[in-house]
Each structure stands twice: as structure tokens, then as C-alpha cells.
Amino acid sequence: MTNCIFCKILNKEIPSKFVYEDEFCFAINDINPKAKKHILVIPKNHVESLNEVEDTMLLKHMFDAIKKINKQENISHFKTLINTGKNAGQEVMHLHIHILAD
Ligand code: AMP
Ligand code: ZN
Questions:
Q1: Sheet order of strands, 18-21 included
Q2: 2: pLDDT confidence band, cut at 50, 70 and 90?
Q3: What is the average per-residue pLDDT within 66-75?
Q4: What totals of helices (H) and strands (E) does the chain contain, helices first?
Q5: Which domain covers residue 86, as residue numbers?
């Protein structure tokens, strides 16, 4: 998707440090953190939101990735958040799971 921030980050058109990467997803620090640690887990395929997920194995994969990221980042107490749709606060229309830890 050409005009998508997260696709641009994945394609290195916007510089960003990946804190995690595998075949299906990657993770970056949120540019405007709302907790001491605020990480976004993002699928490599452009999927607009949870509503557009066709194969829910993607979600399993992302939550498995979250377990690995949390181990790597020493996070054990955390919140996860998925905003779905503009009226629910989704600003970037490419699915992502927030990890928030204080
Ligand atoms: P949401 O409101 O759920 O769509 O969350 C989008 C998140 O993406 C917000 O927390 C933003 O701070 C974050 N964000 C936007 N642009 C960037 C960027 N270039 N790098 C990292 N995080 C970003
Ligand atoms: Zn995208």
C-alpha cells in the first residue's frame, strides 16, 4: 500500500528501528509513547484493520511474537490494545497491536 506509514517503514522509505522481525510481522517503538514501553506489532502484509483479517492464524502469530518481544524487552506486566476503525481511535489504517508497559 503506497500511502501507508507502516508499509513505508517496512519498505525502509521511512527510517525506523525494528525491535523485532520475523516472516509475517515486525515491531517498532511507538513514536509518541503512551507508556514507558510502547511497542507496535505490525503484520508485513497490508491489512487495514481487525475487520479485514481473513486468516485468524495471523493473530495467533502476532500474539506469539508478542510473547517473544516481551521476553526480549523484559516486559511481564503489560496491556495490549487494538483500535479498529476511525471512530474507535484507529489513526494508522494498517493493523497493529499496541504493547503498553510501565
Ligand atoms: P492507532 O491510533 O491505534 O492507529 O495507533 C497508531 C500509533 O502509531 C500511534 O500510537 C502513533 O503514535 C504511532 N505512529 C504513527 N506514526 C509512527 C511512526 N512513524 N513510527 C512509530 N509509531 C508511529
Ligand atoms: Zn500498510
A1: 18-21, 25-29, 37-43, 97-101, 79-81
A2: confident
A3: 98
A4: 2, 5
A5: 5-101
Domain of residue 54, CATH code? 3.30.428.10
Sign of the alpha-carbon dihedral angle for 3, 64, 70, 77: positive
Distance of CA 30 from the midpoint of ligand 1 (Å): 6
Q: Is the pTM of this model over 0.85?
A: yes
- Ligand 1 pocket check for 28: Cβ under 6 Å: yes
Q: What's the total number of domains in the chain?
A: 1
Ligand 1 atom closest to the Cα of residue 9 is 19
Catalytic residues: 96
48 lines ligand 1 (CB under 6 A): no
Nearest-5° Cα angle at 32, 29 to 33: 65
Running DSSP on this structure, what letter comes out for residue 57? Answer: H
60 membership: H or E segment, kind and range: helix 57-72
| Ligand 1 pocket check for 87: Cβ under 6 Å | no
